[in-house]
Amino acid sequence: MAEPATRQVPAQAMAELVAIVGADSVIRTPLRLLTYESDANGVFHSLPAAVVLPHDIDETRRVVEVLARHGVPFLPRGAGTGLAGGAVALGNEVVVDTVRLTRLDAPDLDSAAIWAEVGVTNVSVSVAVAGDGMFYAPDPSSQAASTIGGNVANNSGGSHCLKYGVTTNHILAVDAILPDGTALRMGGDAPDLPGYDLRGLFVGSEGTMGVATRALLRLTPTPAEVRTVLATFDSVRAASQTVSAVIAAGMLPAAMEVMDRMAIDGVEKGPYPVGFGPEVGATLLFEVDGLPVSVEAKAQRIEAICKQMGVQAVRIAQSAEERALWWANRKTAFGAMGNLGRNFYVQDGVIPRTRLPDVIDRVGEIGAEFGLRIANVFHAGDGNLHPLILFDAKKPGDTEKAMACGSAILKVCVEAGGSITGEHGVGVEKRADMAVMFGEADLALQDSVRRVFDPRGIANPGKVLPTPDDIRRASAG
Amino acid sequence: MATAPEPRSAANPLPMAGGFRHPDPPSEAGYDSCVHCGFCLPVCPTYQVTGLEEHSPRGRVFVIKAAAEGRIPLLDEALLEPVDMCLDCRACETVCPSHVPIGTLIEQARGQLYHEQAALPPGRRIGTMERLAFRHLFPYPRRWDRVARLARWYQKSGLFRSGALRGRLPAHLRDFEAALPPVRGTTVRRTAPTVTPPQGARKARVAVFTGCVQDVVFTPVNEATVRVLARNGCEVMILRDQNCCGALNRDMGDREGARDMARRNIDRFLASGAEYIVTNAGGCGSAMVEYPTLLAGDPAYADKARAFAGRVVDVSRLLVRLGIEPPTAPPVPQRVTYHESCHLANVLATRAEPRQVLRAIPGLDLVEMTNPARCCGSAGIYNLEHPEMAGRLLEDKMDTLPDGVDVVATGNPGCALQLAVGARQRGRTLRIAHPVELLAEAYARETTEGVLSRG
Q1: Which of A120, A122, A221, A416 has its CA 20 to 30 A from that of A473?
Q2: What are the chain A neighbours of B370 within 8 Å (beta carbons)?
Q3: What CATH number labels B28-123?
Q4: pLDDT for res A477
Q5: SS3 per residue for A408-432
Q6: DSSP readout, A56-70?
Q7: Rounded to an integer, what distance in angstroms lies between the CA atom of residue B103 and that of residue B86?
């Protein structure tokens, strides 16, 4: 009855892995490996040859050293909340699961930094330093579950990255085990180290340059005051135009988030309903932060602009609870797609903000062409779209249709002068689309960089960079 | 635009024949609504302890789905272990964006395995003692009276004091035996008046659900519940022929047994005309509000189950709804922390009300613990079945109790016992009490004070 993995780890390597972490911490039987066949991407599945769960950094180093010495391909995994299939063992690699590396040091408040092992969840960093008046700024919607390791691998963004920047702007140093087993610190306490920015290369490398074990995170002072404004509109177009009007008025809110009607339907059925009426065609959630006086003025200005732009209703959060509810409502959007359909497939395209209204209309048309429902959630300030394509994997051909639909949307994004991914990483899902985004010379140079770190191609192979086949198809199609 | 690689790899062959083969299988709509987002991971106690995907809610839903599709054989450890190790604490359900009915899926999977007992590996079978209890004890309330008398006799006997039996028990049961509070030997169900009149104007007519373990081991909690409700304007009924709620049967997969008990409770409580069916045990209350799910396939009871469930309420919530009569006795200083029963918090969504009850008590200083909603490891009889995992969760819980508290208040007998074990193991003098016990004491002090001032 078993579904055997096709790759066998050499017996000697397996014995050494077991000797390091203990037999309980190496999962080898195919049926027990099933729960590791996918991450939060709804499409790609493949069984790893084994899953190894080291208990600490030293075990992690020794595990990677064994895999490197035996030439066994591997990939790191955190909480498995990635949306691009980056943690799927496409070629039955060994998964090095880092969720047990959960040590969080005391913060160094003088330099506003904290060392976190990679299994620490994103939000627990902010929780730990809240009492010191600090927070860790990158806030992917998965932040309650996703790990620092996964955030570093994918250079994750989030709602507040409009103002604060993405993960790489908040990582001072990374300790990693390279694909040859070498332990190396990239970056350091001091900013702007001389020489090539290895830290910058590593952040966002999706496990293709080795396994991170801990990172020095930059902490940000908690803003003195925060105002959250929730506006509802007849249409996504009206909401998008309001976003442009706010930017044109010279403001940079910390976040500007739009949801369309279908996304609203999903989250309102979730655990944090806000109570939007049926007349609401789109929601626009703003956050402004800073000094009390300026924040109040900004919130009122936004309110006024919303009214000029034909808002249905606009409200400033009256309490911390109300603010938390609005955010929880927004941040569960992906997971809430289960309320609307069996499977979903999310895209992560980026477009110039001014093109939002037209591109969103085009996304709707593409959905209609493919006969698929698409919910839209986007970080409007960055022009980072998240079309959630609903499909039914049990229906023959539906998965392929959803993926083709996703690619069609990305093509529109690139044509609009944008990019195929904002914050979810390339993984396996958008690997082929890289060939649309980049030219030959660019891809060749990226490939050379990867080979410097991993000449044998054993670290998360098959991810990020397109295969020759992908490139051929891209230039043909 | 280029197409991405093959979505399903060659290493992921097609489903095999098989799947669940008994009635009432885990529902397809239930497991199919999981989109694998992983938001449940950080709240799952077993995942937090092990870091294993198979011990996460997402992993459990996944293996249940895989078993339904025939990818995992019904009797394989890859299904048994994840399904068995779930605490059924339901923390995952409170954060799931798609409302996957994870608890029900687990219970339904256990229901399938219940029918496969003979074929299960010996370590996975339901033990003889549990089986006897399910069949011959839980469904028969009068037998609980005998258990109560027997327990009292035992605690009074030299056998208990000498610890002769204790020495023969497995290690993890020894602490339980020693931590049991003195048993009254009678039950409220049998001895309390069938109707206790309200003090003052009647605000509501209620029936108290007395439970089994609660009534035998924590008789004073039931007594306090009756007194406090009456003091707050309730006419309080005690139905002599009420039944165990069936939660333990259901948790172990005996869904038919649980349904029988549910039907009997529904008939009796609906016939009583009570406006509210009041529970003081989070586990019982949560099982009872979920009778509609349990009886979904029974057309004769589906509507009645909904009517019944609509009346079930935790005592703290009812008190808050009616408005708590403030105790007039002078304040007695006591430092109390509150541990949330998983079922009370996650299924009955009753979190603020027990704290409001505590805050109504003059002199009581409520000190919050970190992570009050984290499971203590009791989880029905999970602590008896899985002492290692339960022990680790208890250790974590004891670590988070604030220093200098006199009392840990909690709204579920399983938690109360587990915490008593924890206190004993740590050599800590801690009283474990139900919030209504503390409120009843405050009311009792009114009369004592009155007597003293008169005398």
Answers
A1: A416
A2: none
A3: 1.10.1060.10
A4: 57
A5: HHHHHHHHCCCECECCCCCCCCCCC
A6: SHHHHHHHHHHHHHH
A7: 9
The predicted-structure confidence for A265-308, as pLDDT tens digits, reads as follows 999 999 999 999 999 999 999 999 999 889 999 999 999 999 99
- Give the pLDDT of residue B134: 79
Question: For B327-454, which CATH class?
Answer: alpha beta
**For chain B, what are the domain ranges?**
28-123, 327-454
Residues in chain B: 455
Q: Considering only alpha carbons, which residue of chain A is nearest residue B40? A: A145
Which CATH entry fits the domain spanning A341-415: 3.40.50.300, 3.20.20.140, 3.40.47.10, 3.30.70.2740?
3.30.70.2740
- What whole-number distance in Å separates Cα of residue A392 and Cα of residue A381? 32
How does the average pLDDT of chain B come out, rounded?
A: 91
Q: Is the pTM of this model over 0.80?
A: yes
Residues 6+ apart with CB under 8 A from B420: B179, B180, B181, B432
What's the confidence (pLDDT) of residue B17?
41
**Topology at the third CATH level for domain A113-221:** 3.30.465
Chain B hits for A333, CB-CB cut-off 8 Å, are: 97
B284: pLDDT strictly greater than 70 = yes
Fold match between A225-331 and A341-415? yes
Among residues 401-420 of chain A, which lie with CB inside 8 Å of chain B?
403-404, 407-408, 410-411
Task: Give the pLDDT band (50/70/90) at residue B8.
Answer: very low
Give me the DSSP letters along A33-51: HGGGS--S-SS-B---SEE
> Residue B18: its pLDDT value, please?
61
Q: Which of B81, B96, B98, B374 to mutate to test the interface with A (most CBs of A within 10 A)?
A: B98
Instruction: Say if residues A75 and A95 touch (Cβ distance below 8 Å).
Output: yes
Give the contacts of B373 (CB within 8 A, at least 6 positions apart): B91, B340, B342, B345, B346, B351
Using the beta-carbon criterion (under 8 Å), do B11 and A3 form an inter-chain contact? yes
Q: What is the mean pLDDT of residues A95-113?
A: 97
